[in-house]
Amino acid sequence: MFIIPVLTTSRKKIRHLLYPDPDIKIEDLKETVRYLSKLNPPRNYYHQNSMKMSARYISKKFEEYGLEPKDQPFMVGNNVYTNVLANAGPVKCSRLIVGAHYDVCGEQPGADDNASAVAGLLEIARFAKRHETELPYRVDFVAYALEEPPFFATKYMGSYVHAKLLKKSRVSVKGMICLEMIGFFTEKKNSQSYPLPFMRFFYPSTGHFIGIVSNYSSSSLATQIAKHMSVASVDVRTLRAPSLVLGIDFSDHRNYWKFGYDAVMLTDTAFYRNPHYHQRTDTIGTLDFDKMREVVKGVCWSILNMK
């Protein structure tokens, strides 16, 4: 365990930052990606049974890791879809939300989008449960249904349902971390593109980093996460921008912004890098599990040390 003393500015006391080995195993990450990406038919809104099998798998994993999973069912038309929730840390406390969607867009396996993030979510939850007594706040883990089209940007997104309930219940939320495609990395030259051409002057042209995306009001949350993730062996880049920049709000964090919560997206930048985005070629063989493990480590350390 690494212990780094840091002087706090408010009370002038020494606060120790903890970076224990999260013991994230590549085979555990692969197991989840393999299971979800090989479901046939694919886990989209049209294939009810595959969606249910995905939710059951996630729930079983939470339970296996010592957490108590709960379903959050919601109706869309005549169909029932389910968010799967679990939590660790003090019950009567403000919450940090860590979430990832488990559905796919169309008839494709979705290894990066978004089985990679679900695998990360499960391993972060296992770490949080193991270090539960060290958490200064409650961490809620949520696997969302219906992030993808045709429900994207509507009130039928699982994350909209979840965020709306938090607001209605007046829950105190420290912030939300959205895991959105965390497994595709490449050293290929000029493999990284951006929504605005001038961004190439400030960010790498090679897709070997993990991005932390926030709006301006969530800047403090993004800064804290970047600080702790930088301890891991992965290049971390932050971007703060308004939602009008294409792709900034292209995941579940958008709904927490909508209800006034700070939220960030951790991403390999999706279609700005990954040529397999929303394609049948988005398979487990395209993922870099060594880099993915470092991303997961960084999030583990973030939730343990966040103020």
Number of strands: 10
Structural class by secondary-structure content: alpha/beta
Q: Write out the CATH superfamily name.
A: Zn peptidases
User: Helical residue percent?
Assistant: 25-40%
Distance between the termini: 19 Å
Return the CATH class. Alpha Beta
* Residue windows where pLDDT falls under 50 for at least 5 positions: 1-15
Count of helical regions = 7
CATH topological fold name: Aminopeptidase
Structural domains: how many: 1
Q: Report the average pLDDT across residues.
A: 93
Instruction: State the order of secondary-structure elements, H for helix, E for strand.
Output: EEHHEEEHEHEEHEHEH
The best one-word shape is: globular
Strand content: 15-25%
Give a quick account of the main beta sheet: strands, pairing sense, barrel closure. 8 strands, mixed
Q: In order across it, which strands form the biggest sheet?
A: 3-4-6-5-7-10-8-9
Q: In the CATH classification, which architecture applies?
A: 3-Layer(aba) Sandwich
Q: What is the CA-atom radius of gyration, in angstroms?
A: 18 Å
Q: Assembly type of the shown chains? A: single chain
